[in-house]
Amino acid sequence: MPHSNHPTRNPHLAEQFETLAQQREAGTLGMWIFLATEVMFFGGLFTAYAVYRHRMPQGFQLASGEYLKETWGSINTAVLLGSSLSVALAVHAAQHGMRKLLVWLLAITLLLGGAFLLIKAHEYQLEYHEGVIPTLRFTYDGPHANEVFVFMSFYFTLTGLHALHMLIGLALWLVMLIRAWRGHFSAAYYAPIEIMGLYWHFVDIIWIFLFPLLYLVR
Amino acid sequence: MSKVIDYASALPPLPAPDYLHDGTGLRSWLLTVDHKRIAVLYMISLTFFFMVGGIAALLIRLQLLSPNSTLMEAETYNRMFTTHGVIMVFFFLVPSIPAVIGNFIVPLQVGARDMAFPRINLLSWYLYVIGGLITLYAIISGGVDTGWTFYTPYSSLYANSKVVPTVIGIFISGFSSILTGLNFVVTIHTMRAPGLTWGRLPLMLWSLYATSIIFILGTPVIAITLALVGVERVFHLGIFDPKMGGDPVLFQHLFWFYSHPAVYIMILPSMGVVSDIIACFSRKRIFGYGFVAASSIAIAVLSFLVWGHHMFVAGESVYSAMIFSFLSFFVAIPSAIKVFNWTATLYRGSISFETPMLYALGFIGLFTMGGLTGLMLATLAVDVHVHDTYFIIAHFHYIMVGGAVMGYLGAIHYWWPKITGKMYPDIWGRVSAFIIFIGFNLTFFPQFILGYLGMPRRYYTYPEEFQMLNVFSTAGASILGVGYLMPLVYLLWSLKYGKPAGPNPWGATTLEWKVSSPPPKHNFASIPLVTEEAYDYTKEPTNAA
Amino acid sequence: MMNLDSTAPRGPQLPAASVPSDLLTDHNSTSVAAYWLIFFALMLLLGLTVLAAHWNLGALSLLIALLIAGLKAALVVWYFMHVRFASKLTRLFSVAALAWLALLMGLTFSDYLSRGWIVGTGK
After folding, report:
1. Does the pLDDT at position B276 exceed 50?
2. Which of A29, A99, A94 is CA-nearest to residue C23?
3. Do residue A43 and residue C105 have CB atoms under 8 angstroms apart?
């Protein structure tokens, strides 16, 4: 009888794998490799930023000090770190088969992530009114105007790209939440939560670097 | 309820159909997750893009038949060489062996039923096709004239052509590469059959693994770089605009950080193919297996350290140029190690000259020439003289065409019986290989001379005294074109009329030759147990018809 | 040579159904208390980085900021992402990407930092 129709084969085990352990290892390794590509993806932007910070230190300092909201940025960092905690606890709950707790923690993660994005949107709105959005609304005409323009370009591309990654992450967490609610996960099978968690922690790490590099240029 | 007597279960089971026949109809192909079918899908789409890029090449050579040619104006010519470069690099060479041969062979050589992530595999093909279609749209609706290198600030500010859709197309197909590489690495790490240690892996897999390292770590950088160019064009961000304090050379750093390793993406898989073919058609294990395997990884790593050699005259600092020049000499060493080991394998081997072997031998010679001229270019002082001339073009075509494309054709001819279950008439294979070899050298050798004499690249015209060599080159290109069309004919012919191939028509030793040709959908009835090295040709080959 | 082999069993095995394989014996989990502890450490470091930005450190301020960020990232990677318990292979991969980024930045800066060292060759 065909391999995949074996009567005692675990329903969570995909056709191409021999054991759940192999499947889980493949999934984890795959996610780490994907994260490596993300490091290089953001890394290209970080490199460009670094080069320009080196070449235009005063303009960058001016823009960062004047227009980036240190308080909101700090709060957002705390929010994101909190969401990493809730994710770590969620994985822990899944590991121990605590379905209700898992669902709550995923809901908290969604809330925290949403709060981050709302705060970010608020900051963007403030920057719009201050007239420092490149091309779309840039009315700054003080010293180092070109450099401020370039800095803000990096600010929006970096935080925009990060926000996009967060949106995708939140959408996926929503799917996980629904699956958890329906009881798809158990102590015997929770790999998707763990693997998704890796992605989320990575998005947090990107922000951990973005915050001081953009908001705290002195 | 009366008892139903089940007679059917008393009969022996019907043989499972092979992967080509297991499910028919367009849906079963377009929604397949079988790595073998995905490989075939790639083969078809890749052939299409090769022809698009090839037509652009022929038009270029036609224009260059005469310095006074009225075939096209400068503007059109610029779009033509850009099309040729973009299509050939991103939509043919980069995917070629990995997506077509790798997708087919990796699970088989590893002893698994499929890749680690079959659905991601299918997604990678769709991303490739979507990226290709968007780029095709850009070409048809006017094209791009920046060169495949998209140098700023021309591409980001001044070009009046379809830069944005082109970079979007390349961006999307870049993810196709990334996913392919991801799949290969995870599959090779976690799905090797019992007994298949790293030291027993076919060198094809070592090469594909090394290639995947570059896919994973390099491609994202060009993705973000081209995205920046697109964003800059749309939003005028000024990141590469000198008037705003931007540095166009930064683009080149970011671009070449990927694009140099990318050329090793194009050559490493061919090297793996050559290893497998040489071993089989010399009836000998590869000499210095360990060195050849390690050299693949070394090439992948070192390839990331040399990108500045494309920028010697672009404005990077002289000290930086010296560092890159120094490192560029090193990257030649592992390639040379391979060439020496292949040669040592051939020595006292029992050599036969079937079509795959002809391509492999051609590869060794032509790649060596390309590689040696590469060393000449790594030399700062020489490069200052020949940069942006036809010398460069000849150098990289010796590697890309004389090397990578020959490797691809060799791979197609070697694994065709496995993929289709049919044999092609070998005589036609050999004739085509010969024609390709002649055509190739006639096309590109004169270009070394032209370049050294000073003929610049990317110009639609040239000084009168260069005409004769250009005519030779165009003549060669026509011959090359004929050579490329011939396999299309006899390979398609073989699908219907070719002799059925057995599981192992070449008498090779790697795992894929142990299953039927074509293989069954799930590859192996039971996962094999590996007890020998990859190229144990000391025993009698199991050549079941 | 470092063992890079996957630790998962491969090949012909008993059907996996009855074995709850996600409960791998090597996967000792971090306790809830430990996670909270790490979180508070991260918050402290956040506070530190904001404070440090207001001290007049000049050229050092970038270095300090990066060091603190690096420490935070390391805590997240080691504890939250379970690299603490991961195989050598996973650890290698998690480091490789960073190494490559360092390569990109390092060699690019070899250009920018040395421009103009030879008079007349540009800024």
Report:
1. yes
2. A94
3. yes
